[in-house]
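2024-03-11 09:14:02 DEBUG pipeline.ingest accepted 1 chain
2024-03-11 09:14:02 DEBUG pipeline.ingest length=349
2024-03-11 09:14:03 DEBUG pipeline.predict start
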Amino acid sequence: ADSARPPNLSLQSDVYGLAPDPDGRRILIVDGFDRASGSGSWQEPWHAFAATHGQALAAAGFGFDTVANEAVEDGRVDLAAYDAVVWLLGDESTGLETFSANEQARVRAYLEGGGKLFVSGSEIAWDLGYRGSTADRAFLEAYLKVRYAGDDAASATVRGVPGERFEGVSFSYGTVPYVEDYPDYYTPVGGSRAVLTYGNGRVAAVEYAGRFGTGTLPGHVFVLGFPFETITSADARGEVLGRAMAAFFPAATAAEAAPGLPASVALEAAYPNPFTAHTTLTLTLPEPARVRLRVFDLLGREVALLVDRDLPAGTHRLRWAPAGTASGTYLARLEAAGQVHTTPLVRVR
């Protein structure tokens, strides 16, 4: 607007935001939703859906940056600079492409380098799997870890799969801020697991943690078959994105301190151990230190990075809840204050 009479008004633009992260975690929201008018459900030439994602992240205690997908596609923004990426696609479909060939290449490199990706959209598998090329389908299955099962889930409710990441979560979606009439449903592939289902039992979302392609570092991905921004309740949006981020960044929380500080750096035996779904590792620090705690298989391959940041002195507990990890023996390795400590972990299924 300006001071002219009558005032001149420009078209409203997309609403983006940013917030500092209290722990220095680098999270990027990528707005890939360009579809407006025509056959799409959202008819305006602007939207505030990136801000909706940002509000959910902030509610869960995370900071973020926001960019348009074009900034990633043309290389102005490097995904590798971020610890986690939240990519929204709304009901973007074949006409404008959910993931272009260039975007696919950048996401492949990011996940092969150990990146963490949360992506939602109602037409991802329809575009890449049903209508896509052989290369599109390979990307969908090898990197997003889903196969197209259908284009109309025929249910407007979603619930968490018992024993999985979103257990106990339930919500409705698809009526506001726009009607989502054709949400995808999936077949999990490549070691992924269903973590959300629609009310009729069809798979609404999957999770996968492990290596991608030719990468040697473990990455992590969540893929939702419906637009995240259409989850009706703000509390449910915060819960879903908060749990995903907690999986990406396992919390290292200081326990209530007994009088005095720990006498030495130590990594205690995990509990429970053996374990099925999750186990907790406890470490102690006599003074603040940079801490790196990783999990390796018996071939020496890294399968999880639980923490890699500065922690205060005290006792800290970290929960490892692996997804897509086989039964077997693993080794947790703590590096802190110039010391290395290890402890075995045994997963049974």
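2024-03-11 09:14:41 DEBUG pipeline.report Residues 252-258 have pLDDT under 50 and may be disordered.
2024-03-11 09:14:41 DEBUG pipeline.predict end
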